[in-house]
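Write out the 3D structure for:
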Amino acid sequence: MAMPPLLSTQLESHYRAHHGWLVHWLQRRLGNAAEAADLMQDTFARLLAGAPMQPQTPALRAPKAYLATVAKHLLINHLRRQSLERAWLAALAALPEQHVPSTERRAEILQALQAVDAMLDGLKPKVRAVFILAQIEGHAYADIAAQLGIGERSVKRYMAEALTECVLLAQDLPA
């Protein structure tokens, strides 16, 4: 479906007007011009991929604020992925050579870790806390309930919610 000419002209105008400060803003935070340029392009791609826009759409009414918000979220996700990748590489470096997975398997595992990270980030804070305390830190439900100041029944409900998301995620991961 073709974009209406007026909207196309507005988007082009916004790109010309705002890409410079946006890439500079991102570069100051990343310290890397290439990554900043990529995230700036991703920000505008999000604008284009969004719902059909009318002149009153926030992205067109207040483009600088909208672009800054989108870029900030993309930057946070980018930095979290980098942190996760560094942790994964450190864990790999600690493995004895005979246990290091193949390059292909390492990429698959990193992709799965990023998917789990994104899934956890999408959970409600208490659901995420319960899941991490139970599955990663190994706490019993009664301990989690006491630590979070909630009932054990709530802990079970939150775990069920988190595990449902894990099952849905597992269906999308490579075998």
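The two ends are 36 Å apart (CA to CA).
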